[in-house]
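Data follows
____________
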Amino acid sequence: MEKVVGLTLFLCLIGRLVNQFISTEIRLIRKRRLRIRDLILNTQSRLRRQRRRQRQIQLYYQLRRRPPSVWVHQRANNWWTVVVPNFTDEQWSQNFRMSEDTFLYLCHRLRTAMEKRDTNFRLCVPIKKRVAIALWKLTTNSELRLVSHLFGVGLTTVWRCVREFCTAVNEVLLPELIPFPNDDKLMEMAMNFEQRYGLPQCVGVVAGSHIPNVPTEYHAEYFNHMGWHSIILQGVVDGNGLFWHVFAGSPGSMHDATVLHVSGLWDLIGQGLFPNHTKNIAGHEVGYYLLGNAAFPLQNWLMKPYSDTGQLTAEQRTFNQKICRASCVAEKAFSRLKGRWRCLLKRNDSHIDLVKTMVLTCCVLHNLCETHGEQYSEEWDPPAAGDQILVALPPEEDAEGAAMGVRDALVHYLNTDNCASPLLE
């Protein structure tokens, strides 16, 4: 009996210990579950806070306007901001080849085509500064680095200002300042030439000039008869020294007569662009015509001097003298063009397409300065470059009978008392 009671007590004790152990394990499991749940919740909460913080940072940097810190460098531009505003009229003319009033007019006309807007990354270069950079480059043909230091801008900015300025001038101002003359304008130019030089029906002088450049290909084609690389600028000048037709870009080795053909002027006039407005001179109906040098072919709309073979008559020599004196208006126009815009005198390292655009831009600016009465200093005159060396056409290619008839009529007219108009230099 005692053994049974003892065994029962022992089993009860064992059961109580087992129950206590199980209860303890259950509590530990519950605590571990709670800790795991809290850890998961805390981790999820921390991740949500991190994502929210990242979104806030991104939004902050998107809304905040911050200046670029790596690719924008602070540059000194004291010359433009301090010195130029105090320029006198003479200093404006010396540095930019025009007065401040004409400069402001130019900025106004090109504002729509050239003006830029500020961005979140940088402030744009103002329109006046952009125009001044381009004018300085055209005036001096300085290296891009020198222009960059002077105006406090980057090299790329200088190049972009020049390119965009020239493009804007050709698109906006060239059709206005170098238009092909209408009937009334042709009549006005003919009267002007007759009053100044005694030449009836003459409406202009066609001439060419070589512009130095450095071609990247086809070097032989651009190598001219003077021994350097160039492109040819052909222009038609009226009696006031203004261009009314320009063409640039032909290789320097090309003959003047060939340039005349490819310029389009030959086709335009041949298709009747000159109106049928004739004048009876020495019994011959003479229409409008241009003057050219010995390198051009004689046409009824293109007069040139007689080839001096030592057998010219006195009347023919007089004709040659008067033609040459009248043709000086083109020589003077090209001289003033190159004197103002020195980029036409020096070797230009820009791409050939940009050089063509720069040349046409200079012609437009020449007309702008002349019509606005801008002063021209004789010290700007370029040295004689010898680019008027001419190669005359063979006699069999020289002319048709109609053209020779026009020239003979002019010879007769210029050697009679009917030609009383003074010759002006």
